[in-house]
Design brief:
Oligomer: heterotrimer
Helix content of chain B: over 70%
Shape of chain B: elongated
Structural class of chain A: mainly alpha
Structural class of chain B: mainly alpha
Number of helices of chain B: 3
Strand content of chain A: under 5%
Distance between the termini of chain B: 76 Å
Largest interface: B-C, 28 and 33 residues
Distance between the termini of chain A: 30 Å
Largest sheet of chain A: none
Order of helices and strands of chain A: HHH
Radius of gyration of chain A: 12 Å
Chains: A mainly alpha, B mainly alpha, C mainly alpha
Order of helices and strands of chain B: HHH
Chain lengths: ~70, ~60, ~270
């Protein structure tokens, strides 16, 4: 995201609407989540509800880890 | 209703006078090469592109 | 050709290992029809020497370890037409015709695309060799859909001195082809990427819909029609139509850098 300013992106801001994430960007996010948290993101989980903001990702990862 | 909108939209995309479009591309392509000619010295081989004015100017130089 | 005269146009046919034979046939049909001078150069040895196939196959093997050069492969896009994030899937077929498919991780995806981009970039290198040799300009032929949605390789097929049909929807390009009386094999050709060994439509690789519908969607989006109007036209749900609109916008954003010149850190106003 090329900034050190935490205020530049609020935790509920949409990555898509802010133009922060594209198809390669989402692959980077998935790669990071799978490596960092030891989860496996399924194809049908690649939806904005799961991944389109910091808070959504946090909730998604939490759900995945509880389920694991 | 659906069919009507479809026809309207399809017709709009296709709304094109082919002969006029070919003429437009032909002119545009020549113009593009002509405008580049000034910078890159592409030769007078393209129709409508002539080095005659330049040759004339050179001949007039003392 | 009509603009410049047949004697002033040079055609290049540049097949490689994964090119469909029909592409070469259609290329020959076109240069014969136009009566222009041309050259055919198989670029497979060049690509092999650069490691294009090896880099690609190594990346594929990191996903499917048994893959070798007797298999065929392609990349398909998924998600954007269903309101999900776009992502890429690797599809392979072994010599027995068994097909397997898996979502691509970041590294193998980047490497496969980087390796296959060699194809477009080598072709462009050869085009500029001949342009320099003949003192000609290079003509690029993206249509509006490809140009707008960034469906090209930067410094590959995206590079040219002039792009005379970039303002025309693909439907219009086909209409012009028919108007000019081009060979029917060309006028009826289905657009493919012709880059991967498995058959791959452009819509499968990149666009959310087949081009006829994609043209309508792009036109509708450009003319501020509503998703409901597009849905009615294409006989899809309003939700799907909105996804297509969103996807158009997402692709524009993702590929805008492909159109950019190199960024300078301070202006050089003299040039």
């Amino acid at each position: 995201m090329f900034t050190d300013d935490p205020a530049a992106l609020a935790d509920d801001d949409s990555f898509l609407e802010q133009g922060i994430i594209d198809s390669t960007g989402i692959m980077e996010v998935i790669f990071f989540l799978e490596e960092e948290f030891g989860i496996r993101v399924d194809d049908d989980e690649l939806i904005p509800e799961n991944l389109d903001s910091v808070n959504r990702i946090a909730r998604f990862v939490q759900r995945k880890r509880v389920a694991a | 209703m659906s069919a009507v909108t479809h026809v309207r939209l399809s017709a709009a995309v296709l709304e094109m006078d082919e002969a006029a479009e070919v003429a437009r591309i032909t002119t545009g392509l020549r113009e593009a090469l002509r405008s580049k000619l000034r910078r890159r010295g592409w030769s007078s081989r393209y129709p409508g592109v002539s080095i005659a004015p330049y040759a004339q100017a050179l001949r007039c130089r003392p | 050709m009509q603009a410049l005269g047949a004697g002033k146009v040079f055609g290049l046919l540049l097949p490689e290992r994964d090119s469909s034979p029909e592409s070469l046939e259609r290329g020959r049909a076109l240069v014969d029809y136009l009566g222009i001078d041309h050259d055919v150069q198989d670029i497979a040895p060049t690509l092999a020497a650069l490691g294009c196939y090896r880099w690609r196959d190594d990346a594929i093997r990191s996903v499917f370890p048994h893959y070798d050069e007797t298999w065929r492969s392609k990349i398909a896009i998924a998600g954007g037409d269903k309101g999900r994030f776009n992502h890429f899937r690797l599809v392979v077929e072994d010599p027995q015709g068994r097909v397997a498919e898996q979502r691509l991780g970041l590294q193998p995806y980047l490497q496969i695309v980087a390796a296959t981009n060699y194809k477009q970039r080598i072709r462009k290198t050869i085009e500029y060799f001949h342009a320099d040799r003949l003192n000609y300009a290079v003509v690029g032929t993206p249509n509006r859909l490809e140009y707008d949605q960034g469906f090209f390789v930067k410094n590959g097929d995206g590079s040219a001195d002039v792009k005379p049909i970039a303002h025309l929807y693909k439907t219009q390009v086909y209409a012009l082809g028919r108007h000019l009386g081009l060979p029917s094999s060309i006028c009826q050709a289905v657009p493919t990427t012709d880059t991967y060994s498995l058959p791959q439509g452009q819509d499968e690789f990149y666009f959310a819909l087949p081009y006829q519908q994609m043209d309508l969607a792009l036109w509708a989006y450009n003319h501020h029609l509503t998703a409901a109007e597009l849905a009615e036209t294409l006989d899809i749900s309003v939700e799907q139509a909105q996804w297509v609109f969103d996807d158009i916008e997402a692709k524009r954003r993702a590929t805008s850098y492909l159109h950019q010149k190199a960024v300078l850190l301070s202006s050089v106003s003299e040039v």
